[in-house]
Specification:
alpha+beta, rod-shaped, 2 helices, 107 residues, Ybab, Chain: A
């Protein structure tokens, strides 16, 4: 049972670190771009949109569909970068945790 106690202690420590990571992600900002940078979207580490910038040259009715597509593309670019950053930070955090095979976090 000593091993189970150690595993539970490690799991609690990991849970505490994960909570800290989640809190710190709010301060992270990642920018995605589309159309060579004519549209940029900034997301925080939780995937919430913080800013949207559109080059004024796209602000006309004839280009509305292109603008919409570029906004979606920029958002998806930023979202992929956020997910990569979260994965990287989580991997760093989980590096020291030695769980038995088949046990995954979070519970």
């Amino acid at each position: 049972m000593k091993n189970l106690g150690q595993i539970m202690k490690q799991a609690q420590e990991m849970q505490d670190r994960m909570a800290e990571l989640q809190q710190s992600l709010d301060g992270v900002e990642v920018e995605g771009a589309a159309g060579g940078g004519v549209v940029t979207v900034t997301l925080n580490g939780k995937g919430e949109m913080r800013r949207l910038k559109v080059d004024p040259s796209l602000a006309n009715a004839d280009e509305l569909e292109v603008l919409e597509d570029l906004i979606i593309a920029a958002h998806n670019d930023a979202k992929a970068k956020v997910e990569a950053r979260v994965q990287e930070e989580t991997s760093k955090l989980m590096g020291g945790l030695q769980l038995p095979p088949g046990i995954k976090l979070p519970f």
